[in-house]
Amino acid sequence: MTRDTPTAKDRAYRYTKDGVLDGRFPGGELISEGAVADALRMSRTPVREAFLLLEAEGLLRLFPKRGALVVPVSAHEIESVLEARELIEGHALRKILRRPDETRTAVTTQLREVLADQEARLATGDERAFVDADRTFHQIIVTEAGNPILLELYQSLRDRQLRMGIGALVRDPDRGRRIVREHADLVEGLEAGDADRLDEHLRQHLDGTRTVLRRA
Question: Which of the residues 12, 13, 114, 129 could staple to 121 if both were Cys, CB 3.0 to 4.6 A apart?
Answer without folding.
Answer: 129
